[in-house]
Uracil-DNA glycosylase (Liquidambar formosana), 326 residues
Amino acid sequence: MASSKTLMDLFQPAKRLKVSPSSSSNSSKALQSMTISSLCKSVTTDSSGDTHIDSQSSSSLTLEQKSRIDFNKSLAKSKLNLRLCSQKVSTSKAEGVGFVKLDELLVEETWLEALPGELQKPYAKSLCTFVEREICSGGVPIYPPQHLIFNALNCTPFDRVKAVIIGQDPYHGPGQAMGLSFSVPDGVKVPSSLVNIFKELQKDLGCSIPSHGNLERWAVQGVLLLNSVLTVRKHQANSHAKKGWEQFTDAVIRTISQKRKGVVFLLWGNSAQEKSRLIDETKHHVLKAAHPSGLSANRGFFGCRHFSRTNQILEKMGIPPIEWQL
């Protein structure tokens, strides 16, 4: 008798399929093998780094099922990367070391391959030394927590980037920064800029206003939430600016521009729009608007419709759109 598990049960990230010879016939084994094989082949990456869904191998699945499987795979990988970073920090503390070497906290293999040796360059070594000293000084706290410094890259693999939203530096209040631009952890008050982002989403796509400000779901779907500067001192905005982070994140943007195609860049405010010099607009799509802060949202952010426009661009290229509803 064949297994009663559904396709979704077979593809949950935390489970492995086990088939007992005594409980399944050869035909059921073959069917299960073919099913998993087709699922694994349903999402492929071409030589240019672009992701496609193979219609023939996944024809038995609905679009919703494909999206859910893809999301679950990506979420599982993101959680694995987070656990790896957390374990590194825990191990260093257990050994009496106050910090983990910064270059060991970028664990997503696709970014290490896309940025070979970037964190070993002289500027990056100086940056790493500076941040490590700041962390182990025991003085002013540094945000985000160590294991989340490269969260944007560890959450959104290089070959899965569909869109990029560029911020400035992390939130500098206690418990706010989580390594994703504009995002705050569950249970933390939603900052004003993010409130305005949600308002625009509601007007643009009819999304309901969420009760939290955790944007991890966007990151897992392929929205790179990248700050220009990845660390900051408590209550000291821009305190880690011009220490090397800008050069590193510029390298990230430049690498996406050079090695990928069809990525949508959402540039909000003058600081983000300065990054357009790094982007080849013959290969990519650049959307510009005012910053969503309370001071400027009414001067061009509200009404920009960047979220629906991003999805329209992706769908025209045959790429699944972003589910912006949190």
